[in-house]
Protein: Cytochrome P460 family protein
Organism: Grimontia sedimenti
Amino acid sequence: MDVKNTKAALLTVASMIIAGGFVSTSAFAKEYFTVKDGELQRPTGYREWVYVGTPVTPNDMNNGKAAFPEHHNVYIDPESWAVWKEKGEFRDGTIIIKELVSVGSKAAVSGNGYFQGDYIGLEATIKSKSLNPDEPGNWSYYSFSTPDHSALTDTAKAFPAAACNACHQAAAADDFVFTQYYPVLRAGKAKGEAASGGHSSSLK
């Protein structure tokens, strides 16, 4: 079969599959994580994903006993961001990375504040029906941080869902995700091209 006929045959097959309803965009969706033998391999390259925000609940504002006193630099994989900005939902296969950074200096030339210090951990959450068929929202949670926060493990097992999901289910704004604290996600929800920034003069 020559090249022309080969292309024609491939197009015909593709048309038949699509017409028959056997293909959805999720069928070819890229996954940005690997789970082997029940353990999540530590993702790489996530700082080039879509950054959604950095919340911090410092000890100074929580009687010295903040549950999460460090900065959390949060990223979402590019394909899940594309679905979020088009449909306003987290796709099956979403992975969100949380990079933990200590509170460093509290003073700078600009004034007093909470400035980032050293990296002290890495966490991830994944939405997957195949991995978490019986978990609320199909979410699972992982930590690659060593107990002394001096290094990262190569793999991580999921926490028991009850350890994380109860709080997420009770207080998170969208599908177990605290989107209310991430302006990039709030502003981008089902906004299409406008989600990429710079298309609107309104800050509301």
